[in-house]
Every structure is written in C-alpha cells, then in structure tokens.
C-alpha cells in the first residue's frame, strides 16, 4: 500500500510538468500585455517598456520559463504583477473560503443525495422514484447562477434568514461562518445532489438483484438494514468515485458561486488574475488546481480499500 | 433413521403460483403438494423451468416480484406462512426455517466479514451480547468442520474457497437450529470432490439435529446420494413422488424414466482407435501469470498451466477433465490463442503457431473454433443468429450470399430450421442456442473444434442431445475435438481419450475405457470416488 502511494505520487511529477508547460505557453501565446494593463490607459510606450523590463517579460520565453521553473522547484511561486504580493500569501489568504465552501457543499450534497438515491432505488418505478429522478434532471439543467439568485431572492431578501452575500472567517466564529456559507453551499450542491443521487440509485439497483441481498432477507433481516448494511455497503465504490469527482469539479464550480455571493476565495482570485493578466498568480492557481485533482483521485482510489476489502494495492 | 411418528415440518398443500401475463405458461407451479418430516431429506428434482426454485422461494416468503400465490397453503410446523404478516415472516426466517443457495460466492456479502454474516442471524433474532455471538459463531464454524475458526471468523468471503463458503452458509443457516432447511442446488457450483464433502455435511447436520431438509437439485447423482424421498417436477407440476428406491429403481412416469435414462453412465462405450493425421499437438505448453511490477512492486507468480503435452487426431475426441482451477480452460484458451502461452510449442495441422506472423495467426484462427459453456451469454442478444453465424466467414472473404447459403445448410446439420436464421437468441432454448453456437463454429470450416464445458449449463435431457450432435458433426466434418469438462460422466460418453488435470499439470492420460476401468493416479481415483451417487447409480444402471 505504502509503495503504491509512493508510486502514484511519483507519477504526478510528469503530469504537473506538462501542466506547467501548457499553462505557461498558453498565457504567453495569447495576445494581451500585462505591462500595458498595469501601466494604465495614460502611460506612454517608455513607461510600458520599463514595466515590462521590471517584470522580466522582455526576456525570451525560454528564459522566462527557465527562471519560473527554477524558482518553482525552490518553492517560490513568485510575486503577483497585480496585487503586489507574494503569490503564496495570496493563495494562502484565499484558500479558507474556497475549501470551506467545497467541503460544506459536498457534505450537504452527499447527505441529501445518498438517502434520496437509496429510496428511489428501493421504490423503483414508484411516484417517489420518478419525483427524485425528475428533480435530478432539473438539478443538472439549471445553471448555478440561476439557482444562486433564486435562493438569494427567497431566503435572503424575502425571508431574511441569511445574509445576501459576503464571507466570515472561521476564526471569527462558527455560527457566522456557517450562516454566510449555507446559501452558496446549497447553490453549488444542487448539481451534485442530482449527480450523486442518480449514481446511488443506479448502483443500489444493481446490487439489489445480487444473491447476498436474498441471503440477508432469508436470515430475516429488516428491509432497512438490508438496504443499508448490505446494499449500500456494496454500492459504495461508484458513489465514492462520483463524490471524489464532485470535489474535483467543485474547484471549477466555485468560480461562479464565489462571484454571485462575493466570497473572497480562489475562484474570485482566478477571475481577477485572468482579467489583469497576472501571469504568476494564474500559473500558480492552475498548478494548484491540477495538484488537488491528482491528490483527490489518489484519495478516492485509497478509500476504495475501506469500502471493498477485495481491493488491495 | 426415519420413524413413522416423525412430525411434519413442512406441508405444502395445493399450492399454485401465478406467472405474470405474457409468460410461456399461466402458472409457475400448479397444485403442488409436498411434505417434509423432521429428520428427512426430500429432494425436489426437475429441469430448468420446472418450478422447483419457485416452490422453495415461496416457502421462505421470498417470491420474486410479479409472482403471486393464488391458491393453497404452506404450513410450517402447522402455521400457514402465506397468511403470516411481514414481521412474523421475518421472525420465522433464520429461526424456524433457513435457506442455503446455489452459488456460495455470490450468496455471501463480499464486503462483510464471514463471522459477521453468521452473527447477523443471532443479532436479528436473539439478544445475545457481542462476545456471546462471537463465541457461538466460533462453535458453528467448528461444527461445520472449518479449519482454524479463529482466523476464518475475520476473513472476507473472497479469501476462502468455494466449499468453505458453502460451509459458512450452512453454519449461518443452522445457527438457530431451524426445523426446516431449504437447500437450493447447494452443490451445483462446486467441484465434485467438494460436492461430496458438502453433501456429507448436510447429511451429518440433518441427522444430528433432526432438521427437515427440502433439497432442490437437477442432478440424479445427488438424489441417489442424499435423498430419503424424491419429488419429480415438470413444468410446474409434480409428476411423481416416492421414496428414493421407488423413484430411482421403479419409476412409473415416462418423464421420470426419461430423466433417469438421460443421466450419462460412468461406463464409457468401447472406442475405436483414431488413425487420422495429428491436427493438434502441444509440447510443454505453459502459462504463467504475474511478474515483477514497476518500482517497489512484488508480484505473485501463478503457474496456471505447467508443461502440458497433448495430441488430437482427426476424428478423435480428447477430453481434458479437471476441477475448477486445474488449468483445463487455460489450455483451451492458449490453443485457441485467446491468450498467449508463456512457454512451449503448439502445432495446428502441422503448423507451428509461435512461428506465424500476425496475418498467419489470423488465418489460423479459422482452423480452431470454440464452443463456450454458456450459450446464453456467448451469442450477441441484439443480433439475429444468422448475423452471428455468417460474421466469421464474411470476415475471411466469403461473399454474404455464399455465407448465408452455408449458414442455412449448417442450421439443418445441427438440427434446426434453416428459416430460423433471422430470429434472435432469446427466441431459442438453451439447447437450441448451443446448437447455434456449434453451427457458428462449423461455419468457419475448422480442423479443430474446442468445446469448453459446452454442456455444463444444460439440463440432462438436453445435454444428451447436444453430446450426440457433437459426436455426429465430428464424424461428418472429420474434425479433431478437444473437449473440456469437469464432469466424468460426460467425459465417459464422448471422449476417446482423457487427460486428467490437477493444478496445471496432467496427472494421467489415456484411452477412456482403460482409464475409467483402472485409474492409476490417486487424484483420478479421488475424482471417481466423489462422483455423486456412483455406487447407487451403478446398481440402477445394471437393473
């Protein structure tokens, strides 16, 4: 198992290298000049050239890449062009809101979706099943921002239960943190509820036809325990896969939600950095996202061994 | 062992179960009467579709959705379980009646420790403490003669063998001492030697505890081995019932007589020596799985096949007999090049396979054709059977019109109608499907035909017909036939020579008649010993 983890981690190095090259090239091969943006509308050509030189953008691309990778290897992500801060600090600052949002979202989604999926499977073909699956289609199709504004309108403006937007750090109190996060997390979770519920239903349905379900019933087990102890436990692997995939996709999803609810997280940082052509920040954020993706995939593969003793690495 | 005063444990009276509309007959079972007394083993025999499983499931209250009992009663120790509430039924399951199933691999929950699965019964029905439950489970594991219970109790199902799994199922079923045990083909998926041990265990448990056993089987060998009384079922009705001797020695109904006659004898018919050219020869054929993996990895090496030497001539049938895991199917797959052997030499019609180029190998594929075990799964369900039959020849350049012409002719050769080519697999019975698979193989005009357990999934009466057909096409098309089977009776009927495999090696090889009359290797002898109902059936054969 330990050897397997080492091998998997070693395999991420080439992946990260490819990502690094692609990000770097994409940014430099698309037209737009960060120096011009920083200099502003009234700057003349000398001022822009001056800034470009200061940022090191006058060097050949190969040299720029070599400098960046060397620094990267030393753990130095560089300084942001736009925010005038170390990128590391910038990210550290924005990490908490994004992670909070992602984790809360996936917890809400799993808590709603798994019971729904199990019930839908158990009552296959009934009106209950159809309602759950209907909502699941709806959840897939409605865009995140529509759900976001709808929830804001109902729960923040009409009912006044939650604030319209903003974020409060966990260190300033759990209650406030949760109150401000709940609407955005719900918004984001809709699509994952749909996804996970569907997957749960399918894999539970598949398992319900297995012989050991019949065995459990022949022992006199109650339907509830047949569902949870025997069916769900065996349906866990595909569900965990979808949840893991969900976490990884969430990182992308937060860009919109954070904008709707003005949460100062990584999503917002990405949008701001892209608009400002802030190369070091964009590069760092994308590298981080890729790393998270790889690590989550590894974590998912490792959790398989918890749910299915037949899987060993 | 059977006192007339034994109380009745199970009494099924005039039971009728309705099939959903659109099925091939209105009732799954009709007007069934079966009784099981304490300390008695009642075998229900029948071919697939006879309703024997429906009967057993209905007793447990586990009828699949869509089936409904419309008439009769099922009295378990006098209580009509058809009238019992869901809660009452749950209480009875595991305590007064219990069931073991055909496939011990899938009947156990793969993600739950076996000890917990036995303890589950105690947890549901008693208020024993966790420690007491564990103690009881260990006792049960001991009782069913499982080795090293302390270790086994925490194992997962995939870590124990098939026979051990069935023992675990039996331990779970008997842990609360039920009055009735229903066994639904509990040894069908097991090897003969394992089967013999499980049958012995069922007998022992039942005698020791006075349990009534309702034993569902399709195998008359098993019936001869274990039954006190026998119920013969056909198409949802009880054809005949009586004691073992009455049914096996003096059957009255033609259907029962036909079933008993269809059981292949262990005595091979006299064979003629084949003198045709050698079509297949394998020298030192080996297949090894697993090797060192990249970085840190530690591979486990499995020798699936170890230097196997065989030869099959035109017009000859060589049987490879062995239990699961013996490597017999791996040999077949190496020869048909479905997998790559790791060592040795294979010659087909004198051509060395290892020296062939990719395109040469492709041509050779035509010469070697396989008929697989499960005709339900080896035909593409979404294509008419004609399309499946002509696919190969068309791939090898025959025009479609020519291929269809050949297919029509072959359909007649295998005993089907030439006009059935545009029907789909589900419109045929199991035996018919296997005929189609044979036609498909013959369409390629092979020199070597491999049957990989081709009759194992079929009912005995159908089995006999398919075996006959295989012998017939072998003669007609002058084929070399390699026949893989686990069933000694089948091997006796069709093979000219037999090779016995164990753990990847051939332990004994020779003409069928000589080998069956005088097996040399201890393992071969063990196989013969284990054949169910051997001594009993021999006396029946003689009668």
How would you describe this protein?
The complex is a heterodimer of chains A (313) and B (543). The model of chain A has no long low-confidence stretch (mean pLDDT 87). Chain A has 2 domains: 11-73, no CATH class; 94-307, MetI-like fold (Orthogonal Bundle), CATH 1.10.3720. The radius of gyration of chain A is 24 Å and the shape is globular. Chain A has helices at residues 2-29, 34-39, 45-55, 61-73, 87-122, 127-141, 144-158, 174-208, 211-218, 223-260, 266-275, 279-307. Chain A has 313 residues and is mainly alpha-helical. Chain B is an alpha/beta fold. Chain B folds into 2 domains: 8-262, Rossmann fold (3-Layer(aba) Sandwich), CATH 3.40.50.300; 278-542, P-loop containing nucleotide triphosphate hydrolases (Rossmann fold, 3-Layer(aba) Sandwich). Chain B contains 21 helices and 20 strands. The longest helix of chain B has 18 residues, at 192-209. Chain B is globular, with a radius of gyration of 25 Å. The two termini of chain B are 26 Å apart. The mean pLDDT of chain B is 89. Classes of the chains: A mainly alpha (313), B alpha/beta (543). The interface between A and B is medium-sized, with 26 and 31 residues.
Short account of what is shown:
The complex is a heterodimer of chains A (313) and B (543). Chain A has twelve helices and no strands.
At the fold tier of CATH, the topology name of the largest domain in chain B is Rossmann fold
Percent of residues in helices of chain A: over 70%
Largest interface here, residues on each chain?
Answer: A-B, 26 and 31 residues
Task: Output the structural class of chain B.
Answer: alpha/beta
Give the full name of the CATH homologous superfamily of the largest domain in chain B.
Answer: P-loop containing nucleotide triphosphate hydrolases
Quaternary organisation of the protein chains: heterodimer
> Roughly what is the average pLDDT of chain A, rounded to an integer?
87
| Uncertain stretches of 5 or more adjacent residues of chain A | none
Total domain modules of chain A: 2
What is the end-to-end distance of chain A? 5 Å
């Amino acid at each position: 198992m330990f050897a397997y983890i080492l091998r998997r981690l070693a395999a991420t190095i080439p992946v990260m290298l490819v990502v690094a090259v692609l990000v770097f090239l994409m940014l430099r091969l698309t037209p737009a000049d960060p120096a011009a943006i920083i200099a502003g509308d009234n700057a003349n050509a000398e001022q822009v050239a001056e800034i470009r030189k200061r940022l090191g953008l006058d060097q050949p691309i190969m040299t720029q890449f070599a400098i960046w990778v060397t620094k990267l290897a030393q753990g130095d992500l560089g300084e942001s062009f736009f925010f005038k801060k170390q990128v590391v600090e910038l990210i550290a600052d924005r990490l908490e809101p994004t992670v909070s949002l992602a984790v809360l979202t996936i917890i809400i989604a799993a808590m709603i979706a798994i019971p729904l999926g199990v019930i839908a499977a158990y009552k296959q073909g009934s009106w209950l099943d159809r309602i759950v699956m209907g909502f699941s289609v709806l959840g897939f199709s409605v865009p995140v921002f529509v759900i976001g504004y709808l929830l804001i309108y109902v729960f923040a403006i009409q009912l006044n239960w939650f604030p319209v937007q903003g974020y409060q750090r966990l260190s300033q109190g759990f209650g406030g943190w949760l109150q401000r996060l709940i609407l955005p997390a719900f918004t984001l979770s809709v699509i994952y509820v749909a996804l996970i519920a569907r997957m749960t239903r399918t894999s539970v349905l598949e398992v319900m036809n297995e012989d050991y379900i019949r065995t459990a019933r022949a022992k006199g087990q109650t339907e509830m325990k047949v569902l949870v102890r025997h069916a769900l436990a065996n349906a866990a692997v595909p569900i965990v896969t979808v949840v893991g995939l969900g976490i990884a996709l969430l990182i992308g999803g937060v860009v919109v939600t954070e904008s709707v609810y003005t949460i100062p997280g990584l999503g917002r940082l990405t949008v701001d950095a892209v608009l400002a052509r802030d190369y070091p920040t964009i590069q760092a954020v994308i590298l981080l996202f890729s790393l998270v993706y790889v690590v989550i995939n590894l974590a998912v593969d490792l959790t398989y061994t918890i749910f299915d003793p037949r899987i060993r690495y | 062992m059977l006192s007339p005063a034994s109380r009745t444990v199970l009494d099924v009276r005039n039971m009728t179960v309705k099939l959903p509309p659109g099925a091939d007959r209105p009732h799954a079972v009709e007007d069934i009467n079966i009784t099981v007394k304490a300390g008695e083993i009642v075998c229900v025999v029948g071919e697939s579709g006879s309703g024997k499983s429906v009967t057993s499931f209905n007793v447990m209250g586990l009828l699949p959705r869509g089936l409904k009992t419309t008439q009769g009663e099922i009295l378990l120790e006098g209580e009509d379980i058809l009238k019992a509430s869901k809660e009452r039924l749950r209480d009875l399951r595991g305590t007064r009646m219990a069931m073991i199933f055909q496939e011990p691999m899938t009947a156990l929950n793969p993600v739950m420790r076996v000890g917990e699965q036995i303890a589950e019964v105690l947890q549901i029905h008693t208020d024993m403490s966790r420690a007491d439950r564990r103690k009881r489970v260990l006792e049960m594991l001991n009782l069913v003669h499982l080795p090293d219970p302390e270790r086994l109790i925490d194992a997962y199902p995939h870590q124990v063998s098939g026979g051990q799994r069935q023992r675990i199922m039996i331990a779970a079923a008997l842990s609360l001492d039920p009055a009735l045990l229903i066994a639904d083909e509990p040894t069908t998926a097991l090897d003969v030697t394992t089967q013999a041990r499980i049958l012995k265990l069922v007998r022992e448990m039942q005698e020791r505890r006075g349990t009534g056993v309702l034993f569902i089987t399709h195998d008359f060998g098993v019936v001869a081995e274990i039954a006190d009384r026998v119920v013969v079922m056909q198409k949802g009705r009880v054809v005949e019932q009586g004691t073992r001797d009455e049914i096996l020695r003096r059957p009255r109904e033609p259907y029962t007589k036909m079933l008993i006659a269809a059981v292949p004898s262990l005595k091979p018919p006299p064979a003629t020596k084949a003198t045709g050219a050698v079509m297949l020869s394998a020298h030192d054929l080996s297949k090894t799985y697993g090797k060192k993996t990249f970085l840190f990895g530690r591979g486990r090496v499995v020798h699936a096949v170890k230097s196997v030497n065989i030869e099959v001539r035109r017009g000859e049938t060589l049987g490879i007999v062995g239990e699961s895991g013996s490597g017999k199917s791996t040999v077949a797959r190496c020869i048909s090049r479905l997998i790559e052997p790791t060592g040795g030499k294979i010659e087909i019609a004198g051509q060395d396979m290892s020296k062939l180029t990719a395109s040469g190998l492709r041509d050779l594929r035509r010469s070697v054709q396989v008929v697989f075990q499960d005709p339900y799964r080896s035909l593409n369900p979404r294509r008419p059977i004609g399309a499946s039959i002509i696919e190969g020849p068309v791939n090898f350049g025959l025009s479609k019109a020519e291929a269809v012409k050949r297919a029509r002719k072959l359909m007649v050769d295998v005993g089907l109608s030439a006009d059935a080519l545009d029907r789909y697999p589900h419109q045929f019975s199991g035996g018919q499907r296997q005929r189609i698979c044979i036609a498909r193989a013959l369409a390629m005009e092979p020199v070597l035909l491999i049957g990989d357990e081709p009759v194992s999934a079929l009912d005995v009466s159908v089995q006999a017909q398919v075996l006959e057909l295989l012998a017939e096409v072998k003669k007609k098309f002058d084929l070399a036939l390699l026949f893989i089977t686990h069933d000694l009776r089948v091997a006796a009927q069709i093979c000219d020579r037999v090779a016995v495999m164990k753990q990847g090696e051939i332990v004994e090889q020779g003409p069928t008649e000589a080998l069956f009359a005088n097996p040399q290797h201890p393992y071969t002898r063990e196989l013969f010993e284990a054949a169910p109902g051997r001594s009993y059936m021999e006396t029946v054969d003689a009668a």
